[in-house]
Write a structure and sequence with these properties.
Number of helices: 6
Largest sheet: 6 strands, parallel
Low-confidence stretches: 1-13
Strand content: 15-25%
Oligomer: single chain
Helix content: 25-40%
């Protein structure tokens, strides 16, 4: 596991890159885009998620210039206060597939106010649900959800529910609708490399 509190000569205690958090031989920094989009992405991450190399929420903030990372439940690691984000930014929408969420298609995308702030809960399913339902600063915010799509390419953790995708994939697909397919394609290059290199490093089959 990556320990973000121990830094030495630009590396973590385990020899991982401090930007992409991959082990140096597997570093994907050269493949990460540097996208400055109109849509702002704010990742609300469960504090226990950050230490895992397989986490994809932190990777989002390295690919998107107009993004922030907020840790829930650990005051000492709150990079940006949730209240400040929601006060200073306009038109926040939560990306979460609850029953009351609006289906994000081309028609809805054309009607959404801009610029838009996309709030993305990050953690396993139970953690993400708690972030959405228990975080006071998110109470009452409108929600959107993705339409059914291609199966997830995230093969680093087991997903017992068909149709679910990881945080990075969900944001890629959302931005593909809001910002254009070229944005989604640029972001997916680094994601595919991350998954394949971690699988290779673990001695697991890279290609299905």
């Amino acid at each position: 596991m990556f320990n973000p509190d121990f830094k030495r000569n630009g590396l973590s205690a385990h020899g991982a890159c401090l930007r992409c958090r991959m082990y140096l031989p597997l570093c994907i920094c050269s493949l990460l885009p540097n996208l400055n989009l109109r849509t702002r992405v704010v990742v609300f991450m469960h504090r226990k998620e950050y230490v895992y190399m397989t986490n994809t929420g932190a990777l989002l903030t390295k690919a998107l210039v107009n993004s922030d990372l907020v840790f829930r439940g650990h005051e000492g690691r709150t990079v940006v206060a949730p209240e400040r984000i929601l006060v200073t930014d306009s038109n926040p929408y939560i990306l979460f597939p609850s029953d009351d969420a609006q289906l994000l298609d081309e028609e809805l995308a054309a009607r959404l106010p801009r610029p838009l702030t996309l709030i993305v809960p990050d953690g396993h399913w139970g953690q993400a649900r708690k972030i959405v339902t228990r975080e006071p600063s998110l109470a009452g915010l409108p929600r959107i959800k993705l339409p059914p799509g291609a199966p997830s390419r995230y093969r680093l953790r087991r997903n017992p529910v068909p149709g679910r995708v990881c945080t990075y994939e969900a944001v890629c697909r959302t931005l593909g609708i809001l910002e254009g397919p070229q944005v989604q394609a640029a972001m997916e290059i680094a994601f595919e490399a991350m998954v394949e290199r971690i699988l290779w490093g673990c001695g697991r089959p890279v290609h299905e």
